[in-house]
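Data availability (excerpt). The following record was deposited with the supplementary files.
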Amino acid sequence: MNATERNTSMCNSERKASLHPVISTHGHAGQKNDVPPVRTACEGRYLLRLANGQGWEFVAADGAGHWVEKLASIMELKRCEADGCPKLFFVRAEFGTDRWQGPLSRLLRSMAGDLPQSGWMFCDVRHLRIWAHPDVADVICETGDVGIHEVDISRMWQSLFPVYKRAADSGGLPLHAALVERNGTGVLLAAPGGTGKSTCCRRIPPPWKALCDDLTLAVADTDSQYRVHPFPTWSEYLWRRSETTWDVQRYLPLSAIVFLEQGTSDEMLPIGKGEAAACIMESASQVYHSFWGDLALGEQRSLKEKVFENACGLARSVPAFRLRVSLEGRFWEQLDRVLL
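Predicted structure:
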């Protein structure tokens, strides 16, 4: 099944638990959209293609052009023509407007194409509103006002949730892990924040090369192997206003997952598949944790089950290790043994 045939339904009509009264996730399937679409034109279209064949067109509607252009530049995405991939529409909509108004009212008719007029369901993800439909693969993201740096970067970070979710639907996972390369092969260095991923990436010498130090997207390829894509370190933009970019369409075959620990000496220890699955689940959850609370309970439960299933699949296919790293040791020599 190719990417255009995959249907997603990120949000549903189930009301959220009362523990989250500020953020709501509602559906309004069947509502007629009587408001004619406004005259919004496409201000940019960029292609994201993953190793497993999945693709997305990032499409900017009127008012979101500069914001999407910045997102595309951070991810090194190129402008494209329509090529049949599912579309991730970005529209600038005021959140004070009627929450039940269908999202197609913000799209030009020629952009909306044959998208259904009713049956759209949305969830609020912090600074974004994400609309999905059970019968189509396209997703619509409403950004609200733009121009506040911290909010804009947070929205870019959160807008990739549909990408992560669709990758999970086909066996992939976003992981809180650095990606290092040697001779065209990738190794993941996974750990919670502050444990040493970035430090290891700065210290590792040639022929090793660090491609990212915080977030990696693993996708399951058709040959039952895994490929990994480097994704942005959003905190670099959020707090340091970095100008670094990441070639997210670049990918490598994954040869090992290494879970970092601080130690007094460098030591690599293999771990079993059960322990590896639990560690992979935790690494993925560190990425998803900012989304869990914004999902309806049923959707949250379903996604967690999928993440666990994919973590088990990844653990079965890729060797996993614990690496104790000292402050001044030569930890990369331990990594060299993984690739021998």
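Summary of structural features: Residues 1-40 have pLDDT under 50 and may be disordered.
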